[in-house]
Amino acid sequence: MSYNAWFQCINGCAGQYSLLEIIYRCPSCNDLLYVQHDMDALKTRAPAAWIQLFDERFHVNTYPYGSGVWGKKEWVVPFIDNENVVSTFEGNSNLFWADRYGKQLHVEDLWVKQCGNSHTGSFKDLGMTVLVSVVKQMIADGRPIDAVACASTGDTSAALASYCAAAGIPAVVLLPRNKVSPAQLVQPIANGALVLSLETDFDGCMKVVQEITKQKRIYLANSMNSLRIEGQKTVAIEIVQQFDWEVPDWVIIPGGNLGNVSALGNGFLMLQELGLIAKLPRICVAQAANANPLYRSYLQGFENYEPVTAQQTLASAIQIGNPVSIQRAIRTLKKFDGVVEQATEQELADESARADRTGMFNCPHTGVALAALRKLVEQKVIRSLDRVVVVSTAHGLKFADQKTQYHLGTLADVRSTHQNTPVELAADPTKVADAISRHVERTRLLV
pTM for this structure? Predict the structure, then answer.
């Protein structure tokens, strides 16, 4: 059975556009596009048969099907040639049972989807494998594309640079100067991308990259390109698969440019339409209080939306005041009985530290999601018996400097409530033993 997919307008305007066409917005209304699959063709395979196929491919070494994305190839880009797939076997990330942390929150069934356990250390790999693979297919078909470009606060640039390097395609990344961590800056540099550090914020970089990609020889790699969403939607499919095809009650997602919200929503909706699941989870989008346009709109029942000037936040990847996927995110939240919560700098730093004390090593964006979880539990929106999945978007090692500053008490405008510093001692066994005893007692009190 052959399957197909194409671009369509999110507002229902007439027109279908090939996924191999360079197009990012609807020609009629200028809004974003989405990828529509031939659902009738997909429905010719029974739900049980899809489950069997996806389970058979899980973690196999057969290229490219061992990838968490390309193991669902028929639901992503079904017609791409396998030799043009650019994959690092991304996805299939750990669904971490946060048992001890959950008990502290009085949530008995808490899980953290570790999307940062990926090739470049963030969930952006899931979308970039799809986008770069389609570009490679277009180049193979004779399309003249000189480079692929993105605006980024760090993680998107790392993923783009890595996948383009693997494909042999030039990459261009636009970063806001002095607003990304050294670990995030060095990734695209190491992978040979042209790194342009601009005197602006992310929203300013986004304006520039949209201008330069109007010339179709430079392809746009930001999440307004719906190919990214197609890869990221597999996170939802993975979560359900890892629960033996059962749906959690809640999914909490950090929100910046908001593409990941609609991406996971699309994954759950596709599972439901094709009969693999019978219900949808509720979704919470968690925003930093310093960059919270969606939260402000939520407080008004989504009746109004106004961009904001994003203020500096430790959660730098979601320091976005004018997210391009705002309308897609609002539509998703309405379908999923969704809520939006925010976290201050103090809340996100403390919550990340609390969770780290139970065996995690969180990025600040995951800290935002965890702080939102705590608030929803305190508000009794999330109940103790609910199965909750928090989406962790990046690896904490990308923010080692920030974590070090927290524990040394040097992080600006943040109290190190859960500070843990090295203990300097003489090389005396008795003093070392005393320090161990005090540590054991403190740990016992925390449990």
Answer: 0.94
